[in-house]
Amino acid sequence: MSTSPVKIWRRQKEIRNLLNRKGKIISWTYIYAPPIDFKKNAPYPVVLVEFKKGERAFGQLVSTQINDIKIGIRVKSVLRKVRDVLSDDVIAYGLKFERI
Predict the structure, then answer these.
(1) Topology of 5-99 in CATH?
(2) Residue 35, preceding bond cis, omega within 30 degrees?
(3) Please, where are the H alpha helices in the chain?
(4) Which label site among 16, 44, 49, 69 has the fewest CB atoms less than 10 Å from its CB?
């Protein structure tokens, strides 16, 4: 599966506005059966985060054990690689969250 570098670039522009922002977890789940590009990472937690101005975003929660995930935990948005290098040598980055 190949993703267009243009689509990745456009998505990066959207993500840039959400980087390094702090918020709190308002919902979360664990992904056990992911899409094929993410199978080697499974299982992994995905959180819905609300920022101070009421904006919301979702993404993978990194460096956290399942027992440590609770609604209300403060997190910060970060940019991380989301999948391995594709056949066209494009590295896809995306929004993820880490606990603060």
Answers:
(1) OB fold (Dihydrolipoamide Acetyltransferase, E2P) (2.40.50)
(2) no
(3) 5-16
(4) 16
In the predicted structure, residue 83 carries a pLDDT above the cut 80: no
Q: Phi first, then psi: give them for residue 95, nearest 5 degrees.
A: -80, 130
Site of tokens 């992904």:
31
User: Which is it for the CA torsion 80, 70, 50, 75, positive or negative?
Assistant: negative
- Residue 68 confidence class, pLDDT cut points 50, 70, 90: confident
Six-digit token pair at 7?
Answer: 């689509």
Q: How far, in Å, are 38, 43, 98 from residue 59 at the CA level?
A: 13, 14, 10
